[in-house]
Amino acid sequence: MKEILIGIIASMFFAVTFILNRSMEVTGGSWIWSSSLRFIFMFPFFLLIVLARKNMKQVLFEIKSRPLPWIGWSFVGFVLFYAPITYAAAYGPGWLVAGTWQLTIVAGVLLTPFFFHEVKTTTGPKRIKNSLPLKSLAISFIILAGVMLIQLQHATTVSIQVVLFSTLPVIVAAFAYPLGNRKMMELCGGRLDTFQRVFGMTVASLPFWLVLASYGLITVGPPSSSQLLQAFIVAVSSGVIATTLFFIATDRVHENPDRLAGVEATQSAQVLFVLLGEMWLLSSPFPSAAAIIGLLIIMGGMLAHSYLTKKPQKQRTAPSQG
User: When you count CB atoms within 10 A of the terminal residue's CB, does the N or C end of the chain come out lower?
Assistant: First the structure.
């Protein structure tokens, strides 16, 4: 339950991404700067954190020992995740991007069979392929249905072209984020803590962001002061706070597919926070009856995930209580 709560808090800070990315676009900012500045601003924060904790040497050793996997999976987990989301914000409103992003809940569950977990046997540790957690998948689809109900309120206000350009890139991001996160957890093997891992992924992906920023400088010119400020807020809120909290939660449960699916499902709460944020900052209309029902379904789904993640733990501890 604690990991579920951490995930929900992370989703609140993640919601800032969708609101401010759209705000930057409607005020004339480019998605190129929205994406690259977030990670450029993140770098000094995590550099100071890792230096203060005096565990920089281990991060550099891990990257140096396996540079290609670090660069490749950091590219998947950070670049293929965030660049498509900011690109989508140039074409669609925050609620549409945030709603489509919830596909990552199902994507995370569908990726489960592609990973392994370690069990102890009489002959030593053995890697066993994860099975598809069908209960978690069913609950995730229920949550997704709630998200779709929320989107009905706005579905008639956008064109097919807007839907395509604002959803297809997000579908790529929805699979890239859990895939990159899980592969990096597998690559690190518990040798790095959350701050070290996020810092390492930021360092490994930084060349891509610098190239993108250089391209932006040539094609669209430098970012405005307003975009710099908003990108900085996104970097702190989503890049530092939300990413750290979410990675802490997934690190704690990465060996249990059901619990991992439950933590990843907490991202559905972003839709609620985006709706509230747009109502407050952008004067969006109050949710319709269908949207309210959708919100209740999402909350019910997250409670079901919480129950599912606690149930195995109770079963394991029951014998010792008797």
Answer: C
